[in-house]
Design brief:
41% helix, six-stranded parallel β-sheet, 15% strand, Rossmann fold, 2 domains
């Protein structure tokens, strides 16, 4: 073993990255703490790992997320301080939207600055993450009453680089409804006609002219033969679908509706099926569920048909807003709560039409990209990391703009069901990023040996 992986908050995307590196990079050993009580992990994880990680002369590289106070750990364990220390930022605390600003919260951003100073390499999952952190250092340190440190951005910046979060996209072909399979075929035909190398990921077109060129590429007769009138098997009626949703169990303690995706997938004709909206984010204030729910309730007031799946992980405290809104939305709800099974999760994304973000705090957005991979049309704020990843047509500036787009989609869901995503998500795949991560974690001889 030569690479020591340390994760003070072993859950969500943090866990996803560490598990991927441990599996794919030879010589990795992983130490982690459960993803609970984030603030306490940031305060005390260094002391825990000081006692837990046994000395080992074979280590050459230490790779940790920025939840860990790296400065404390290397002070407590000088042997680990001699390693090549790589710090990975999933998020940064300098621009975190706290609900109530308290002086004690200064410590979290301060810890990250100290960690950067002792790290050899600092890696961010997006350019937005890196620039928002570096350019906020000076302003952040002005909270110190006097004797403020200077030039820390100048010291830290040369160590920094951007390396996107690597997503290992699974095989989802068995979950795909017919209309999305057709889009994939159209993209494949487009690639063949253009002699453009295929990215290997579904639902991506090489240009906006993709759909327009289909007729010339395939021939009108061929298109007519392959486009089904209904993209999913018919059912008796919409009432049956809603009844099946209402029949699923409701866990009062967890405040979740646990649904079996196979009972709620596209079981009625594509032309009749309401727009299916998915919100796959953590149930916390920084993802702004309140704004999302307000939009849904306005759609309901306007008597526009839609279905909704509210997914994402929950932690110790779940806002009452979730259980209250779930009751108000009633039979519009298809799924409500975290789906621990990856198959169930991706199956739900595959039958959804639109994926929404209302986040106030997002530095990459794995869930959004996974949903796009499954053929969902993304709608994101025109801020944070999203303009770095998505083109302008998928961005909105105000809640009113989001509402207007969803109103149109509810009235004409075929707009999104026939849409070819304009962008390249292959660049965020593990296949594309593997080489850079391998280079980053390549063991180098220690000079002290």
């Amino acid at each position: 073993m030569s690479v020591l992986l340390i994760e003070a908050f072993y859950g969500g995307s943090h866990k996803q990255l560490m598990d991927l590196l441990k599996e794919e990079i030879e010589g990795c050993v992983l130490y982690g703490l459960p993803a609970k009580k984030w603030h306490w992990r940031a305060r005390t994880a260094a002391l825990y790992f000081m006692q837990t990680i046994p000395p080992n002369d074979n280590y050459r590289i230490l790779f940790a997320s920025s939840v860990l106070n790296l400065a404390e750990l290397v002070a407590l364990r000088p042997d680990l301080g001699k390693l090549k220390k790589i710090l990975y930022f999933h998020e940064n605390q300098l621009v975190y939207p706290v609900q109530k600003n308290q002086e004690r919260d200064f410590q979290y951003g301060y810890n990250q600055i100290l960690s950067c100073l002792v790290a050899d390499t600092v890696v961010f999952n997006s350019a937005f993450n890196m620039e928002s952190f570096l350019t906020s250092i000076c302003k952040f340190l002005k909270m110190i009453p006097d004797h403020r440190p200077k030039d820390l951005e100048r010291i830290i910046r040369p160590k920094c680089q951007v390396l996107y979060f690597p997503i290992r996209f699974p095989d989802i072909s068995r979950f795909m409804p017919d209309h999305k399979r057709l889009l994939q075929k159209m993209t494949d035909y487009k690639s063949d006609c253009d002699s453009t190398p295929c990215t290997g990921l579904p639902f991506q077109s090489q240009s906006r002219t993709a759909a327009k060129s289909m007729d010339s590429c395939l021939g009108e007769q061929h298109m007519e033969q392959n486009v089904p009138e209904k993209a999913v098997p018919p059912s008796e009626d919409l009432h049956d679908l809603k009844s099946s949703v209402r029949g699923n169990t409701y866990d009062e303690d967890a405040r979740h509706v646990i649904c079996n995706p196979s009972t709620t997938l596209g079981v009625i004709g594509d032309q009749q099926r309401p727009l299916h909206i998915v919100w796959p984010h953590r149930w916390e204030h920084d993802k702004d569920p309140e704004s999302f729910f307000k939009i849904l309730l306005k759609l309901q007031e306007k008597e526009l048909p839609f279905h909704v799946s509210v997914l994402g992980e929950t932690f110790t405290d779940v806002p009452d807003l979730f259980s209250e809104t779930r009751i108000t939305l009633g039979s519009s709800v298809l799924h409500w709560g975290y789906l621990p099974s990856k198959d169930d999760y991706f199956q739900t994304l595959c039958v959804a039409d639109v994926v929404i973000s209302t986040a106030k705090h997002e530095f990459f957005g794995v869930a959004m990209l996974e949903a796009v991979y499954c053929g969902c049309y993304p709608l994101c704020p025109k801020s944070l990391v999203y303009p770095e990843i998505f083109s302008a047509e998928y961005l909105y500036s105000t809640p009113e703009q989001l509402l207007k787009k969803l109103q149109n989609f509810c009235k004409r869901p075929e707009i999104v069901r026939k849409h070819l995503f304009q962008g390249d998500i292959a660049r965020f795949s593990w296949a594309a990023l593997r080489g850079r991560f391998r280079s980053l974690l390549t063991a180098e001889p220690r000079k002290d040996l």
